Amino acid sequence: MIGSTISHYKILEKLGEGGMGVVYKAxxxxxxxxVALKFLPPHLSSSEQEKARFLQEAKAASALNHPNVxxxxxxxxxxGQQFIEMEFVEGVTLRQKLPxxxxxxxxNYAIQIGDALQEAHSxxxxxxxxxxxxxxxxxxxxxxxxxxxLAKLKGSMKLTRTSSTVxxxxxxxxxxxxxxxxxxxxxxxxxGILLFEMLTGRxxxxxxxxxxxxxxxxxxxxxxxxxxxxxxxxxxxxxIGRAIEKDxxxxxxxxxxxxxxxxxxQKQSAKVSRTMTQEIPIVPSERAKSYTSAVADSxxxxxxxxxxxxxxxxxxxxxxxxxxxxxxFNKKETIDTIAVLPFENVGxxxxxxxxxxxxxxxxxxTLSQLSHLSVKSxxxxxxxxxxxxxPQKAGKELGVKAVLTGSVTQRGDNLQISAELVDVSNDxxxxxxxxxxxxxxxxxxxxxxxxxxxQNLSLKLGGEDEMKLEKRATENTEAYQLYLKGRFYWNxxxxxxxxxxxxxxxxxxxxxSTYALAYAGLASTYAIYPEYSGAPAQQYIIKTGAAxxxxxxxxxxxxEPHTDLGLIKSAYQWDWAGGEKEFQSAxxxxxxxxxxxxxxxxCLQNEGKYDAAFVEIKKAQELDPLSLVINQNVGEILxxxxxxxxxxxxxxxxxxxxxxxxxxxxxxxxxxGQLGRFDEAVAEFKKVTDIVGPNNPFGLGFxxxxxxxxxxxxxAFKVLDQLHAFAGQGDAVAVEIAEVYAxxxxxxxxxxWLQKGCDARxxxxxxxxWDRSWDFVHSDPRYIALLKKIGxxx
Length: 794
Known about the structure:
With 794 residues, this protein is α+β, with helices and mostly antiparallel strands. The chain folds into 5 domains: 83 residues, Phosphorylase Kinase, domain 1 (2-Layer Sandwich), CATH 3.30.200; 180 residues, Transferase(Phosphotransferase), domain 1; 136 residues, Rossmann fold (3-Layer(aba) Sandwich); 222 residues, Tetratricopeptide repeat domain (Serine Threonine Protein Phosphatase 5, Tetratricopeptide repeat); 94 residues, no CATH class. The chain is 54% helix and 12% strand. The chain contains 32 helices and 17 strands. A hairpin with a 2-residue loop joins strand 1 and strand 2. Helix 21 packs antiparallel against helix 22. The relative contact order is 0.04.
C-alpha cells in the first residue's frame, strides 16, 4: 500500500497496527496536509459487526473537540474499504517514554490524559482501552489520547458480546473481566493502572500467565508504589489506590475529581521545588572556585572589611524598616462576616432553579463550617431572591463585611458559574471568577469557589478548616443533584412540594447509599410533613427516626438529624427530656444552626418554660433575622409571656417580610381572636385560605372557634362539616374539630375529639398547655389527665 493513492490520499508509510485497525501516514493532496488514515485490517473487513464497530469509533471520536484528544477529520470509503482520516501526531507513544523519571512529568501527562477522559465521558463515551500504546506525546510534550475503537457510545447498539472481555488485559477493570456493564469509572481504573506504570515501568497487578493476572486484578491488593518509587509523594500513592479500587463505587466518580487531586499534587510539587531552590546552597563549579581564589587574593584590608560590615548592617535595617512600613500600610484586613446572596438562575428556567438555589445553599453550609467566619443563614439571604438589589446595600442590611454574588447558566450538560466577592465597606471588588465546566464537575467548582473566598478574605485556615473545605458528602454527582432538588422543594414548605422532596432524597440515596446529608434531608422532611399536610403522624415518626439515625451513623458531625429527633421525641413521642437532650446535642455540634434553636424554643414553649423558650428563640433570630418562621415564633412566645403588643408588632413585621406566608396570618388571627378582635381575626384567616387554598384544613379549627364565640353558630357548624370531611379523607384534624366544639361550649365533644387527637399523636395536641382556647376547661379532670398523658402536667 506504501506509495499508492487512495481517493485523494497518497500513502507515505505505515505507522502501526492494532487489534482494530492499521494506521498509515498519508498526504491529503486536496488540502496539502499530512494526516493519518486508519483502515480495518483485511481479515476483519468482511465482518459487518467489525465494520459497525469501526463506524462507532469514528462517530464517538468525532464528537470530541479537545486539545488532548486526537482530532477526527472524517470517515470515507474507497473500493469497499472504510477508513478514518485523523490528525497526524508527530511524536512517540507514551510506551516509549516509560518509566518516566520525574514525578512532575508523569503528573503533568496524567492531568492531560484525565482532561481528555473527562471530555469523552461528558459526551457519554467510555474509551475502554486506556493503555500506553493508545496515547501519543507530540513534539510539544502534549498528550493526545487516541484509538476510540473500543469506545462505547451511550445509546448505540451493543456490538460486544456480554461475556467477552474488551480491552487490554493488564489494564482491565474487575467489572470488565467479569463481563458486567462498564461505565466511565472503568476508564478511571485503567487510568490508575497507567499512572502506576508511568511511574514504575510496570503494572500493579502481575502474574505468570493471563489467568493469574486476571485473578490478581479481581482479588489481590496492588503492589506498593512507594516500594518501587520511594521518591514519589505518598499522596500520589493514595490517589492511585483510590482509582484502582475493586468496587467502582469506591473509586473516583468522575475524571474531574481524579484530575483535581492530581493538580493538588502538582501544586505541592511546584511549591516544594521553589522552596528547595531557595534553601539549598549552591555548590560552586571548579571555574567558580578559581574565581573565588582570585578574589581572595585581592581581599580588602580589615579596616575596609569593617566599613563593608557597617554599611551592610545599615542596609539590612533600612530594608527591614521598609518591609515593616509596607506590611503595615498594605495590611489586608481580615473579613470575618459574609453573606452569600442567592445565585441568579440565568434564563429563569424553572427546571434549573434548584441548581442556582442549591449552589447558594451549599456554599453557605460549607463556609459556615470555617471556624473564623460568620455566614448569614439561608433564609436571611433568600429574602433577596429575585430582587434587583445592590450587593453593598444588602450587605449593610445584613450586617456583614463582604457579600458573594453569582449566577448559574446551564445549557445541556454545560455549566457556567460566575462569582464575585464585594467589600461592603467600600463596594470594592475583592475577587471574582468564571467557571465553564460540565455539570458533572459541580462539586469541584463549589470547592474551588469556597477556597478562593477563604483565601481572598485573608482567613488563616488551620488543618481542620482545610479538611472541612475538601470534605465531600458524596462523590456521586447525580446523587448531589437529586439532593439539591430535594432541598429546593423542602424549602417551599407545602404538602405537595414536601412529597417531591421525599422522592428526590430517596432517589439520591438510591444513587449513593452512604450519603448522610440525603438521609438528614429525608428525616427533616418526614419530621415536618404531618404538620403541613394533615397526614397522620404515626408512620412519619418511625420514618423520621430511621432516616435520622442512619444519617448520624454515616456522619456523627451532623446537627440536623439530632434536631429532627428532638422534634419527634418532643412533639410526637412526648419524651420532653429526650427531646431537649437531642436539641442540646445539635447545638453543641453546630451552635450556628438556627433551626436547632427554633425547635428547642418550641419544645420549651410547649412545656410551659416560656422564659427559657424566649432565650432560645432570640438566639435563632440573631442567627437568622429574616427567617419567617423564626420571627413568627418570636411573636408566639412573646404572647405566652403576656407581652401582647410586642407580639403583634413582631408578627406584623413578619407579614412585611412576606405577605404570602400563611403561618404568620394564622398566628395574627389567633391573637386577635384571643383579644376579642373577632373581625380582624376572621380577615386574617381569609388571607390564610387565599394562600393555602380551599383543600387545606390549616387553621380551620380556630376559625370555627371564632365564629362560635362571635355567636355565628351556623358558620361554626359549616366549618365543622368541612373538618369532618377532611377527617373522612384521613387528615389529622381531630384537635381542630375539638377547638370548634370548645368555642361552642360543648365540653364533652371537645374532650372526645381531643382524646382522638391525643391517640393519633397529632402535632397540635402539644399546644394544650399554652393555647388559651382551652382556658375554660383547665379545672376539668379530663384536661389534667390529658396533660399527664402527654407529659405536660408538671
